[in-house]
Amino acid sequence: MQLQWSVCLLLSLVVGIQCYSTGAPASACSDIYPVGHLGTSQDLSTNPFQLSLSDFDQTYGGEIYYVPGQDYTLTLSGSGGEQFRGFLVQARAVADGFPVGTFIDGGDDQTLSSCDPPESAVTHTNSSLKTYLTLNWTAPLQGAGGINFL
């Protein structure tokens, strides 16, 4: 009986770990919090990952400003060679927290998520280890003020 219980527990853990290996679920879109990782939040002072922004006009007080309709490149990477498996990135207006802009499907390791509005977020397509990824984002045609990437 002990062995059966152990095997059952092990199988349930394996299933739970692999549930989102092909991308973040739509339920993660509301707060961009990794589903299935409750109680394991990252200490921001030791966060080994960064999202680098290229070609953005300016940042002010942590907010990012852009040219409406322009394409931008973002790089998601680990410092010191840290690797990651999954991600979910979305741009949101500082004023109201609403998703802004669209992502462009950029390759084998990423896909547009099922967040609303469509194409407003990008997520992983597999659980392979990644050192960095290049993401392509198009700013909204109408200015939305400052934005943050989550």
Automatic annotation (TrEMBL):
<keyword id="KW-0929">Antimicrobial</keyword>
<protein>
    <submittedName>
        <fullName>Reelin domain-containing protein 1</fullName>
    </submittedName>
</protein>
<dbReference type="GO" id="GO:0005576">
    <property type="term" value="C:extracellular region"/>
</dbReference>
<dbReference type="InterPro" id="IPR042307">
    <property type="entry name" value="Reeler_sf"/>
</dbReference>
<dbReference type="InterPro" id="IPR051237">
    <property type="entry name" value="Ferric-chelate_Red/DefProt"/>
</dbReference>
<keyword id="KW-0399">Innate immunity</keyword>
<keyword id="KW-0964">Secreted</keyword>
<dbReference type="Pfam" id="PF02014">
    <property type="entry name" value="Reeler"/>
</dbReference>
<dbReference type="GO" id="GO:0042742">
    <property type="term" value="P:defense response to bacterium"/>
</dbReference>
<keyword id="KW-0044">Antibiotic</keyword>
<dbReference type="GO" id="GO:0016020">
    <property type="term" value="C:membrane"/>
</dbReference>
<feature type="domain" description="Reelin">
    <location>
        <begin position="14"/>
        <end position="150"/>
    </location>
</feature>
<dbReference type="InterPro" id="IPR002861">
    <property type="entry name" value="Reeler_dom"/>
</dbReference>
<keyword id="KW-0732">Signal</keyword>
<feature type="signal peptide">
    <location>
        <begin position="1"/>
        <end position="19"/>
    </location>
</feature>
<keyword id="KW-0391">Immunity</keyword>
<dbReference type="GO" id="GO:0045087">
    <property type="term" value="P:innate immune response"/>
</dbReference>
<comment type="similarity">
    <text>Belongs to the insect defense protein family.</text>
</comment>
